Amino acid sequence: MSYNLAIPERIRDFITIAEIEDPTPVIQDLFLRKFGDEPPTFGHHIVAFYVAGPSRTPISYLHLWTRNRLGYVGGGCTDGRVFKQLTELQKKAISAEGGLLRQTLLYCFTRHENELDAFFGHCGNARAKEVDLAAGFLETSEEKLLVRWNVELPEHKKHALINEAISIGDF
Predict the structure, then answer these.
(1) Which residue(s) pair with 19 in the sheet?
(2) Which residues does 145 contact at the CB level (< 8 Å), separation at least 6?
(3) In this predicted structure, what is the pLDDT of residue 131?
(4) CB of 48 within 8 A of CB of 79?
(5) CA 36, 121, 132: angle at the middle one, nearest 5?
(6) How many CB atoms lie within 10 A of CB 20?
(7) Distance CA 137, CA 21 (A)
(8) Sites in the chain below the pLDDT cut of 50
């Protein structure tokens, strides 16, 4: 199912976002280049595609896995090789909308927030953190851990969930 209504109008003609079942044939090359490893085979795989005529080329990826009504977001990356193929006008439009990571995050939030109490993100990159915060994540007491609450929770419960996310380590 596609949630393109969440895609801003100025990029809707050339960017589409979808959740796919098997990421391997679609984003394996990108994931290997960015992380030096195979993409995860579990969870949810959100891909932004560059649309040029009849072709759809993956340009950005985000991974979400869930456990106990919590979502763990990671693996966010954009394919610079594909991005270079865009026109200057398209690049400026994407930039004006906060970038492709922001768009895949917003898609993820829109698609899954009703089934999860919170999203957690683990971010060690300053630019990505800036985008994560602009998309709705909040900082926690743990330096690299971010959270986006989807429901009202008492502070002691929030603290327990943050500790649970910390115990997982990098994701």
Answers:
(1) 46
(2) 120, 121, 122, 162, 165, 166
(3) 93
(4) no
(5) 100
(6) 16
(7) 25
(8) 1-5
CB neighbour burial string for 99-134, b if at least 16 within 10 angstroms, e if fewer = bbbbbbbbbbbebbbeebbbbbbbbeeeebbebbee
pLDDT for res 3 = 42
Distances (CA, A) of 7 to 52, 104, 107, 143: 17, 9, 8, 30
Contact 66, 164 (CB under 8 A): no
Residues with Cβ within 8 Å of 115's Cβ and at least 6 positions away in sequence, in order, are 66, 69
DSSP letters for 17-49: EEEES--HHHHHHHHHHHHSSPPPSSSEEEEEE
- Please tell me the pTM assigned to this model: 0.91
Give the pLDDT of residue 171. 80
**Residue showing tokens 């996310």:** 165
The secondary structure of residue 114, as a DSSP letter, is: G
